[in-house]
């Protein structure tokens, strides 16, 4: 967000108290409309104060030389190409893929870049034809309407948490917990694991609510609720989740920046991943290595089987977060959250790993069955987490696209009857949630008609599919990318063969 107007992002993700606190850090005010720059992390070029002074001196010298009929040493100045590139970047028109295409890849890699470029160009062209234009007036209108909608939802009381709904949730949790213990006591280990997995599935939605501070709207209170449910009861890390999820909400479906779609080597939702993109979140290259080539070519078949083991990966991510001094907060108001989470992890592995899995289940075969069932039952949660984004656009339309348009463009809702909302946990209203992430999930259904009206008003397509159709869209997208990779592999083999034969012919 460096160099960009983040008004809507800040408003959507931060409480009124946090926004008021931010006023203390104002260093200046902009007169007129702010012109967005391309952030440095995406290749934007910004002059420092020192370099600006040097530029002024150079320009002064250039004027003196010009007036005296002298010539300017070219090594001192940017070339025309560099100047044009800087102008493009500062205007926000340079995309990561266009920069990649300016490189000189080796012959075997050339096809990958060209394939990614063609696919990206097609995706951008498709989005530009379906969504409102990116001119300042059109996007300013969308931003204004979005802010008016936010005020309307506040006036309607939809930001107020309906605590009665959580009382109903607590009854569900209690029933599942009782069934888990009862079956465990009577040695029905498979059934016991089933009920525990269902409990974890539903509890994850409360963690999601707490992470967005949409329960009590208090930072420490909701954080403690999230830590108790995620760490103590589920062995996961709410701190990791918040760090990951907050980034996802800002750069939704960005191949380089959104960790929620960076699943190499197992999944790729865009041919952009064929170019071994660098993840700004993980600070590493997402290489298209041998493993990635295998998994991606069959990803539409492996999608559900891999998601069966998704919870095990969350354990790994939890500990990598808690043990990494660069990730978990060590200063500020949340410094003690990390230690409370660690205590929660110890407690979880004591009650689940030792008391339940080891002491309460007598044989290794029964332990393995219990372990696998309790974890695989949570797979629908991972399906829901990917369903709303995998089939949607991952194209970057530049820095001038409004926050509201980007959220709707990269997200879809899932249609289901109201009585099934508790199974989806609000994730069936992801468009509404991405526009208003602090809105309590039990109010998302009531907010949906307002969002649909807003989309009709500003001309943004609102995508909503049934659960089955949505899954078909995801599998179709994965299949398309898999086919692109297969075709690319065949082309590379033919090109390599021709190259070798061509060399031999000389």
General description of the model:
The chain crosses the membrane at residues 175-203, 302-323. Residues 189-464 form the Fatty acid desaturase domain. GO terms for molecular function: oxidoreductase activity, acting on paired donors, with oxidation of a pair of donors resulting in the reduction of molecular oxygen to two molecules of water. Pfam families: FA_desaturase. Residues 60-111 are annotated as: Disordered. The protein is mainly alpha-helical. It has a domain at 140-464. It has 22 helices and 4 strands. It has helices at residues 7-13, 16-22, 49-67, 80-91, 96-101, 107-130, 136-155, 163-185, 189-211, 219-234, 238-250, 290-297, 299-307, 310-323, 337-359, 364-376, 379-390, 403-409, 421-424, 430-435, 444-458, 467-505; strands at 278-279, 284-285, 413-415, 464-466. The strands form 2 sheets. Strands 1-2 form a two-stranded antiparallel ribbon. A two-stranded parallel ribbon has the order 3-4. α6 (107-130) packs antiparallel against α22 (467-505). The longest helix is centred in the last third of the chain and has 39 residues, at 467-505. Mean pLDDT is 87; it is low at 65-105.
Which tags fit this structure?
single chain, 506 residues, mainly alpha, two-stranded antiparallel ribbon, two-stranded parallel sheet, 22 helices, 4 strands, 63% helix
- Low-confidence stretches are 65-105
Q: How much of the polypeptide forms β-strand, as a percent range?
A: under 5%
Order of helices and strands: HHHHHHHHHHHEEHHHHHHHEHHHEH
Structural class: mainly alpha
What gross morphology would you assign?
Answer: globular
Gap between N and C termini: 54 Å
- Strand ordering within the main sheet: 1-2
- Helix count equals 22
Based on CA atoms alone, the radius of gyration comes out at: 26 Å
- What is the arithmetic mean of pLDDT? 87
Question: What is the makeup of the main sheet?
Answer: 2 strands, antiparallel
Beta strands, count: 4
Protein name: Delta(8)-fatty-acid desaturase
Organism: Aspergillus udagawae
GO molecular function, one term: oxidoreductase activity, acting on paired donors, with oxidation of a pair of donors resulting in the reduction of molecular oxygen to two molecules of water
Keywords: Membrane, Transmembrane, Transmembrane helix
């Amino acid at each position: 967000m460096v160099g960009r107007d983040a008004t809507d992002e800040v408003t959507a993700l931060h409480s009124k108290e946090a926004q008021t606190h931010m006023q203390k850090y104002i260093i200046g005010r902009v007169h007129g409309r702010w012109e967005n720059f391309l952030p440095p992390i995406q290749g934007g070029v910004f002059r420092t104060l020192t370099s600006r002074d040097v530029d002024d001196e150079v320009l002064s010298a250039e004027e003196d030389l010009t007036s005296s009929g002298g010539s300017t040493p070219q090594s001192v100045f940017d070339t025309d190409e560099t100047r044009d590139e800087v102008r493009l970047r500062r205007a926000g028109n340079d995309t990561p893929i266009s920069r990649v295409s300016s490189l000189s890849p080796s012959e075997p890699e050339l096809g990958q870049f060209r394939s990614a470029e063609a696919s990206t160009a097609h995706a951008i062209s498709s989005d530009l034809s379906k969504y409102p234009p990116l001119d300042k007036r059109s996007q300013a209108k969308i931003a204004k309407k979005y802010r008016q909608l936010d005020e309307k939802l506040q006036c309607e009381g939809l930001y107020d948490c309906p605590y009665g709904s959580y009382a109903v949730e607590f009854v569900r949790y209690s029933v599942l917990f009782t069934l888990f213990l009862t079956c465990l006591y009577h040695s029905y280990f498979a059934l016991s694991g089933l009920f525990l997995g269902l409990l974890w599935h539903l509890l994850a939605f409360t963690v999601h609510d707490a992470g967005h501070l949409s329960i009590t709207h208090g930072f420490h209170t909701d954080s403690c609720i999230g830590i108790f449910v995620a760490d103590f009861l589920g062995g996961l890390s709410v701190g990791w989740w918040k760090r990951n999820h907050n980034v996802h909400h800002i750069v939704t479906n960005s191949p380089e920046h959104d960790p929620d779609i960076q699943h190499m080597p197992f999944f790729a939702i865009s041919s952009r991943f064929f170019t071994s993109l660098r993840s700004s979140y993980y600070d590493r290259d997402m290489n298209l290595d041998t493993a990635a080539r295998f998994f991606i070519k069959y990803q539409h078949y492996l999608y559900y089987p891999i998601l069966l083991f998704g919870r095990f990966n969350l354990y790994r991510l939890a500990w990598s977060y808690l043990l990494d001094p660069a990730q978990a907060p060590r200063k500020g108001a949340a410094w003690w959250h990390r230690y409370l989470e660690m205590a929660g992890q110890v407690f979880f592995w004591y009650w689940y790993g030792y008391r339940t899995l080891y002491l309460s289940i007598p044989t290794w075969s029964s332990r393995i069955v219990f372990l696998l069932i309790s974890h695989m039952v949570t797979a629908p949660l991972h399906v829901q987490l990917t369903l709303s984004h995998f089939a949607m656009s991952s194209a970057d339309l530049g820095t001038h696209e409004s926050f509201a348009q980007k959220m709707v463009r990269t997200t879809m809702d899932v249609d289901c009857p109201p009585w099934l909302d508790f199974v989806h946990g609000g994730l069936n209203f992801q468009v509404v949630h991405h526009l208003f992430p602090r809105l309590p999930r039990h109010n998302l259904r009531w907010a949906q008609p307002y969002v649909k009206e807003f989309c009709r008003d500003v001309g943004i397509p609102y995508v909503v599919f049934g659960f089955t159709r949505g899954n078909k869209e995801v599998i179709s997208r994965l299949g398309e990318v898999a086919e692109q990779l297969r075709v690319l592999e065949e082309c590379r083999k033919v090109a390599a063969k021709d190259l070798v034969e061509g060399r031999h012919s000389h």
